[in-house]
Design brief:
Order of helices and strands: HHEEEEEEEE
Helix content: 25-40%
Oligomer: single chain
Radius of gyration: 32 Å
CATH topology of the largest domain: Jelly Rolls
Number of helices: 2
Distance between the termini: 94 Å
CATH architecture of the largest domain: Sandwich
Strand order of the largest sheet: 1-8-3-6
CATH class of the largest domain: Mainly Beta
Low-confidence stretches: 43-59
CATH superfamily of the largest domain: Jelly Rolls
Number of domains: 2
Number of strands: 8
Shape: elongated
Structural class: alpha+beta
Keywords: Membrane, Transmembrane, Transmembrane helix
Length: about 160
């Protein structure tokens, strides 16, 4: 009987300190891997690397640029923006700032004056930035007369 008790006592007990150490090591490895993967993806998002098909980031446009203003003199009338004669002949960025006290709406055709279904809102104090092709323009309309809109164009090089 004593031999049996001795055999049961000799059974190796689990080494809890060793298990704790390996759990800790495994946790560090998983956290490091996740951090590495997230860092790679965030760099792709903010700096335009090849990790994302359409990266978000700052693009350098070294072409010419100009600032203008457009007064919407008559209510519910569509005005071309950039105004005729100011439309760049190269692909460009259009920045519009609604500094008026009224909402202004934009659309792709002069038909926005007749229907609200085709209009998109630029609220008072709001802005709109668009990447447009050579010779393209949009149309602006306001429910109030004599509202001035500031806009700028920057050509792609």
């Amino acid at each position: 009987m004593n031999d049996r008790i001795t055999t049961l006592i000799d059974i190796e007990k689990p080494d809890y300190e060793r298990r704790k150490f390996f759990k800790y090591l495994f946790s560090i490895g998983i956290v490091s891997l996740v951090g590495f993967l997230l860092n790679k993806k965030s760099n792709a998002l903010s700096f335009g690397s090849t990790g994302v098909p359409d990266p978000i980031g700052i693009k350098n446009f070294s072409g010419s640029g100009a600032d203008y203003s457009l007064t919407l003199t008559t209510q519910d009338t569509a005005y071309q923006c950039p105004a005729s004669g100011n439309v760049p002949s190269k692909d460009y960025i259009l920045d519009i700032y609604n500094s008026s006290d009224s909402s202004v709406y934009w659309g792709w055709s002069s038909g926005i004056a007749g229907t609200s279904a085709l209009r998109r809102l630029i609220s008072s104090g709001g802005s709109l930035n668009m990447d447009l092709g050579s010779g393209q323009s949009i149309y602006l309309v306001c429910a109030s007369a004599d509202k001035t809109i500031a806009y700028g164009t920057k050509e792609r090089s």
